[in-house]
Amino acid sequence: MGILSEGRRQDSIEIDPVHELKPISLAERGLLKKVRGISAISNLPNHVAERQREQALKRIQSELKIEAEITTLYDIPSNGSGSFLFLVAEYEKTLAAFSSLGARGKPAEKVADEAVDSMKDFMESDGCIDPHLADQLVPFMALAKRNSFFTTTQMTEHLLTNLWVIGHFLKLKTRCLGGIGGPGRVEFVNE
After folding, report:
1. Do residues 100 and 114 make contact, with C-beta atoms less than 8 angstroms apart?
2. Which of 115, 122, 136 is nearest to 38 (CA)?
3. Residue 168 bears catalytic tag
4. What is the 3-state secondary structure (H, E, C) of 49-100?
5. How far apart are CA 122 and CA 124, in angstroms?
6. Which of 138, 160, 133, 158 lies closest to 149 in space, CA to CA?
7. What digits encode the pLDDT tens for the residues 168-190?
8. Do 101 and 82 contact (CB within 8 A), yes or no?
9. How many other CB atoms are found less than 10 A from the CB of residue 124?
C-alpha cells in the first residue's frame, strides 16, 4: 500500500520503469545552498529533541559559519523510545546527508555532535559524494550504458567490496584513484 504526499493511503501505486540509466559525472559539489535537518524523538520528553536541535544549530553557526533550519518532530510512532538527528547539506550539484541515533544514557548533545562532526568532516574534505552514498551509487553506475565517474571524500572498504562484487557480475572496467580512508575518484568504463 502506497502513501500519497497528502498523507492519504491508497491501494495501488504506479511506477514507470526507466528504459536506460544515464551516466553520471559528479566531480564537484558546487556552492553550498543550504543546510536543513530534523531532530526527532519517540516516547521521550520534548526537551530531548529541542536539545539536539539547539546543539546542532549552535555548532553549525559557530564552527561552520552557516545558517541552518532544523525542524523538531515529537511523538513519532514507535514501539520503543529513541531520538534521531538528520542533517542535509544541499549543494548546487549534490546533496550530502549525515545522521546520528540516540541511545540509552547518550546525551542529546552527543547525538547532535556526532551528526555535526560527520557533516563538518565532509565539508572540510575534497570530493563530491559522501562515503555512505558512494557505495550505493556504484550498482546504478555499473548499469549505465556509458562511462560514469564520481569523486568521494573517503574511499571505504565497503565501496571497494561493492566494486569487486559488481565486477564479477558485469563486464566493465573500473578505475579507483585514492587510498582507503582518503578522498578518491571512481570511474566506470563500459565496454
Report:
1. yes
2. 115
3. no
4. HHHHHHHHHHHHHHHCCCCEEEEEECCCCCCCCEEEEEEEEEECCCEEEEEE
5. 5
6. 138
7. 888 888 899 999 999 999 999 86
8. yes
9. 9
Which of these is catalytic: 19, 47, 158, 168?
158
- The answer on 115 and 177 residing in a single domain is no
Distance CA 144, CA 21 (A): 5
Cell representation of residue 16: 514507470
**Residue 72: C-alpha distances to residues 46, 146, 154, 158 (Å):** 9, 43, 30, 32
Same domain, 132 and 117: no
Which of the listed residues 101, 123, 145 is the one where a domain comes to its end? Answer: 123
Quick one: 134 and 107 in the same domain? Answer: no
Tens-place pLDDT, residues 31-82: 999 999 999 999 999 999 999 999 999 999 999 999 999 999 998 899 999 9
